[in-house]
Design a protein that fits this description.
2 domains; Rossmann fold; binds glutamine; seven-stranded mixed β-sheet; 280 residues
Length: 280
């Protein structure tokens, strides 16, 4: 039974200030990644071996001791229901980012050879998801970090979409020559002055240059919007993930650069999380 199997591990969390729900989620996550068995099936269809239990314990103990995110200990994270490689050169993909992928898919005509650019691809989660969902798309994924691109390349290969994505090391548009139908980005957007609001483990372990941005967190929205204009085809779409208090400001930035039809998508917490506009 699912609850029973978790009893092997709950002692690791003794005296830790974490909810029962979070403990269960962490145990289930590590178990599924390490054994590929869906936790719901444990004790019903399959049991864990002694070796598997020891392996899971090792990871959970390291996590509880060091506070290092489980995804970095395991080198893997879930995004859109699939397992992606990650390391400390890449951000851990967040569920909110799935809304950005969904929005791009709504814009893309599946029968056309859409050209899409993902700026700051990190683990490549956005580019790979788009390649899987829009198989005819011709995708370019860029990042300033060569080490992040190495992970993105591994993810593209894992999901058989290496042919659909070109990876380019580029500081924003510095090495980008083409024009695109969609430019998408989940850029760093946390304002340096909001550092206290960032969870401790995020601050300690995730790459700061993927998280923080100058100019109240708006720096990359300004740069990318400005430069996108020359890199978008007529009626091209620009889409960003944004922070919880940034919608009005990013909408303004886009309107000032002649983007129209500015729209947003809310995430599961009812926060305006994704913004898009069309090149006028
Ligand atoms: N594109 C990646 C993601 O959405 C990385 C984003 C980033 O590093 N800011 O997870």
């Amino acid at each position: 039974m699912i609850a029973n199997y978790r009893k092997n591990f709950t002692y690791i969390y003794k005296e830790k200030n974490i909810s029962y729900k979070e403990i269960c989620d962490e145990i289930d996550f590590v178990t599924e990644i390490l054994t590929q068995i869906k936790p719901i099936n444990i004790g019903i269809i399959q049991d864990l071996t002694k070796e598997q239990i020891e392996l899971i314990k090792g990871v959970l103990e390291e996590h509880v001791e060091t506070k290092k995110p489980l995804q970095y200990i395991l080198g893997k994270a879930f995004f859109a229901g699939k397992i992606y490689y990650v390391n400390q050169d890449t951000l851990i993909p967040r569920p909110e980012t799935e809304f950005l992928v969904d929005l791009c898919c709504q814009y893309a005509d599946k029968n056309k050879n859409y050209k899409i650019l993902d700026i700051g691809t990190g683990s490549g989660c956005i580019a790979v998801e788009l390649a899987l969902r829009i198989p005819k798309a011709n995708i370019t994924a860029s990042d300033i970090s060569k080490k992040a691109i190495d992970i993105a390349i591994k993810n593209a290969s894992k999901y058989g979409v290496s042919q659909n994505i070109s990876f380019i090391k580029s500081n924003l548009f510095s090495n980008i020559k083409d024009k695109f139908d969609i430019i998408v980005s989940n850029p760093p957007y946390i304002d340096y002055t909001d550092i206290e609001e960032v969870q401790q483990d995020v601050f300690d372990f995730e790459p700061h240059r993927a998280l923080f941005a100058p100019d109240k967190g708006l720096y990359f929205y300004k740069k990318i919007t400005e430069q996108s204009y020359n890199h978008l085809n007529a009626n091209g779409v620009l889409a960003f993930e944004i922070g919880w208090k940034q919608y009005e400001k990013v909408a303004e930035i886009m309107k000032n650069k002649n983007f129209t039809n500015i729209e947003f998508v809310k995430d599961l917490e009812d926060i305006r999380r994704v913004i898009s506009g069309i090149k006028n």
